[in-house]
Amino acid sequence: MEDTGSTTSPMDWTSIGNRFPEINTVNDSLGLSPTARNRYKQDTQLMVLIATTSVIGLVFNIAALAVLLQKRNRQTITNLYLVMLAVGDILLCTIVLPLRLVHVYNVFWWTRASCAIYVVLKYTPMYVIMNTVVLIAIERCVAVVSPAKFSAFASPRNVKIQLGLVWLLALVELIFPFAVIKTTRQPVKNYCTIYHLKSSFVYMFTSMVAVPLVCLIVAYGTIIVTVIRRRRDSHVTVEKTPASKETGARSRRTNTRLIVTCIIITILAVVSWMPVYVLMYLRKYYHVTTNRHIHHYVIIIFYFHPVFNPLVYFFVDARFRAGFMRLFRRKKVGEENISMASVTKIDGILE
């Protein structure tokens, strides 16, 4: 359903003033007060930063994708999930961020159909990213808590089903936003948005942040409890041979590194996404006034999320770091062999 909106002429600056109260009089071609000009300048700076972030995130995630898919024997189930996460971040950089620029500056005449397409393109990558983060937590939980069941969980057929469900669930979660979208007419341009109902904000926050957060807390909480219990019980086990001790220590290091990496990814996702929805909810329904700079900082953190994950892989995992560096510089064969030999004993994401 389209909102027919204002029936005023295209140059009705009073109607524009309803949206931008800072616009007082038409003294020049724009009719902007100093406050409005300052706001426009801040918005432009924010959009430039978002555009820069999209380019950086795109480069980093394409590089991460190339490293994770370099060798077939490194394509573990965790790495495949990280590939899906990189794909979601790439979509965020190539679709969501550019569309954000179009939306903020109102440079497109939105119809009901184009607005619906915009909502699907905007929110699908976001839901895919959060669903993948939850799936990674579930995979780590099964691997640690029920090792005997992990081989069945991580079978090629089941992994394909899981990755398909990530996208299917994202589309199902879009049913409600798709139902409440509308176009709001402006005197010169129009604006595509979701109905500003409390139910829409509650749904978006619950489905994209709250429910995934609960799942993540349960999964990683179960992992931590299981690890603590096993370490306590290990003190009363029978004597082990040096070889078995070394194997067990190596396995524990690998699991610990993977769990730490996944927890960092989870924390960054929650810290990046939760403040945006909390701030919108407080401002819209409890009339909590926040400094405009705070709002910009929250938006910046949100759009920096695609950059965070590749940086985590780079600093946590030596194999990923070596593969990443090889993408951006050429080495002699001897140097490359030495470089890879120096990290063969380091457990990481790629192993």
TrEMBL record:
GO cellular component, one term: plasma membrane
Chain segments annotated as transmembrane: 46-68, 80-103, 123-142, 163-181, 201-228, 258-282, 294-316
Residue intervals of the G-protein coupled receptors family 1 profile domain: 60-313
Compartments reported by the entry: Membrane
Keyword Transmembrane helix attributed: yes
Molecular function GO labels: neuropeptide receptor activity
Keywords, comma-separated and alphabetical: G-protein coupled receptor, Membrane, Receptor, Transducer, Transmembrane, Transmembrane helix
Membrane topology: Multi-pass membrane protein
Top-level taxon in the UniProt lineage: Eukaryota
InterPro entries with a match to the protein in the record: GPCR_Rhodpsn, GPCR_Rhodpsn_7TM
Matches recorded under PROSITE patterns: G_PROTEIN_RECEP_F1_2
PANTHER family, alphabetized: G-PROTEIN COUPLED RECEPTOR (PTHR24238), G-PROTEIN COUPLED RECEPTOR 83 (PTHR24238:SF57)
This protein's name: G-protein coupled receptors family 1 profile domain-containing protein
Highest classification ranks of the organism: Eukaryota, Metazoa, Spiralia, Lophotrochozoa, Annelida
